[in-house]
Amino acid sequence: MTQSEEARRLVLESADAGDLQAAQAAEVLGVSERHVWRLLAAYRARGAPALAHGNRGRRPHNVVPDPVAATVVRLARDRYPGANHTHLSELLWEHEGLALSPFTVRRILEAAGMSSPRRRRPPEHRVRRERMPREGMLLQVDGSHHAWLEGRGPRFTLLLAVDDATGDVPSALFRPAEDARGYFSLLEQVVLRRGLPLALYSDRHGVFQAPIGRTGRRPPTQFARALRELGITQVFARSPQAKGRVERFAGTLQDRLVTELRHAGAATIAEAQEVLDGFLPRFNARFRVQPRQSEPAYRPLEPSLDLGAVLAFRHPRTVARDNTVKYRWRTLQLLPGPERTSYARSRVEVVERADGSLSVRHHGQPIATRPAPPPAGTLRTARAELASRPDYERIASGRGSGGVLPRSAETPSPNGASVQPPSNGAAPDPAVKGRPLLPPTPRQLARWKAIRQAQLQGLSMRATARLLGISRVTVSNYVHANGVPGRRTRAAPSLPEQRDPPDRIAAQLD
Question: Contact at 8 Å (CB) between 237 and 200?
């Protein structure tokens, strides 16, 4: 008997004698209580041999017979010498009718002392990667998501860059999330403080590598485009262990920096950044190592290169016929230049810098722009009485003060009288007769009055939606309604034989 079987026999013997309960025996053996009763029944019937596995001593049904194994050895030595194990298994099936897997053939031949004639490459011995010899040759970047304030404030992300040669942190900053704008700021600090590194080592985050598109290629991200323009090689890590240096530094910061933030009482991201700026010099002095070559590899930035325009978001646009381009609800008017008077229907790039300013480029050359004149609807909105009343926008967007409608929500008509909504809500719809209407909520009433006043002032649905901060679909529903859209009670579920016909259901949906 094996050691495990002997231990099981002792437990069952104690359970059979009454010293152990079945539940206790099950806990000791690591099986269910029901299985303990099965083992006890077998032990009482046949004794200790019942604890051995039933297949012990039997010949497996799928074992290769000895004559077949001897035939394989003879054929490999006489008829098919020099064939590797996989090729030999194919030859045995094609010419000899022996269906044996390559693993079985290998096991038979190795038992006979015949190794494969093909020399296989030994497994690669993994070693720790040597540091770069010069500072600035390789920069590892990563984001660390952690509760840096330990509940005193919101959670945010630490973006940090670690030099591979020295191990110091040339730049680090806190951001609400790991995004491209944060990495732009991180790289800008590195370039202004040290210079341009030769390569950047990162994971395959969406900031650094875009997913494969419909064409089967990966379009460059905004950050990858900036690296290409700055002449920085982009290197991707295939695993988190590959960029272990920045990962270990992030773990060290999660230990030391959290203590520093707690000691300073930081509760906001701005206060945490102030503590981080004072902590980094001491941190680098503690963990910095000397590179093998003292001369750094950081490259100076060319004076003619606009770093702010490179580390920015660029979006292609087509110029309208009136020489305007739109970007996120902002319209820019392109001014005529000395070389070209009109850019209509041309492809340009809208550049959004880190500070939010916009500029337009055509074939890399900047174009003089100014804010486009607002349309007529916007002018009417700016000069109307509705623009000076923030209660409409606040209540219409669902941010009312406790459901109390302000007194100013009454809608004046052109002749000075106030426009009151119908007292009983919207008119009943014949298609949904029998389903009562609930009175409108204060927010619905405020929306109806605000949209009604905007319509009386001549605003379009798009301008009304922008002014009130709601969607155009909601504005359209209120405009085309007979009155204040009230809440309708749900219809009781009908039995299968009493369901409405399809034409009635379509009428209700309409």
Answer: no
| Distance between CA atoms of residues 29 and 435, nearest Å | 66
Query: CA 158 to CA 147: how far, in whole Å?
Result: 10
Measuring CA to CA, which residue among 181, 356, 362, 145 is closest to residue 254?
145
Q: Any bridge partners for residue 331, and if so which?
A: 326
Structure confidence by residue, pLDDT tens digits, 68-92: 999 999 999 898 888 888 889 999 9
Based on its alpha-carbon atoms, the radius of gyration of the chain, rounded to whole angstroms, reads 39
Cα distance from N-terminal residue to C-terminal residue, the chain: 80
Write the pLDDT tens digit of every residue in 272-284. Answer: 999 999 999 999 9
The dihedrals phi and psi of 243, each to the nearest 5 degrees, come to -105, 50
d(CA 287, CA 435): 74
Q: Is 11 helix (H, G, I), strand (E, B) or coil?
A: helix
CB atoms within 10 A of CB 397: 14
Q: How far is CA 290 from the centre of its chain?
A: 37
- Assign 40 to helix, strand or coil: helix
Q: In which region does residue 18 sit, left (phi positive, over 0), alpha (psi from -120 to 50) or beta (all else)?
A: left
pTM for this prediction: 0.55
Retrieve residue 273's tokens. Answer: 């950044």
Q: Please give the structure tokens belonging to residue 307.
A: 């770093």
- pLDDT tens column, 401-411: 333 333 333 43
For residue 209, what are its two tokens?
């590598």
The continuous run of DSSP H or E covering 152 comes out as: none
273 CB-near residues (< 8 Å, 6+ apart): 173, 174
pLDDT at 242 (0 to 100): 73
For residues 415 and 404, give the distance between their C-alpha atoms in angstroms, rounded to a whole number. Answer: 27
Query: CA 132 from chain center: how many Å?
Result: 31
Distance CA 438, CA 447 (A): 17
What is the rounded distance in angstroms from the CA atom of residue 339 to the CA atom of residue 188?
Answer: 33
Given strand 171-175, what is the order of strands in its sheet? Answer: 171-175, 156-163, 139-146, 199-202, 233-236
Q: Are 243 and 203 in contact (CB under 8 A)?
A: yes
> What is the C-alpha separation between 35 and 504, in angstroms, rounded?
62
Distance CA 141, CA 128 (A): 19
- CA dihedral sign, ordered 273, 275, 278, 282: negative
475 is written with which tokens? 């504005």
Secondary structure (3-state) at 445: helix
What the block records as the tokens of 505 is 């259901």
Write the DSSP symbol of residue 27. H
**Which stretch of DSSP H or E encloses residue 327?**
strand 324-327
**Strands in 82-224 per DSSP E:** 139-146, 156-163, 171-175, 199-202
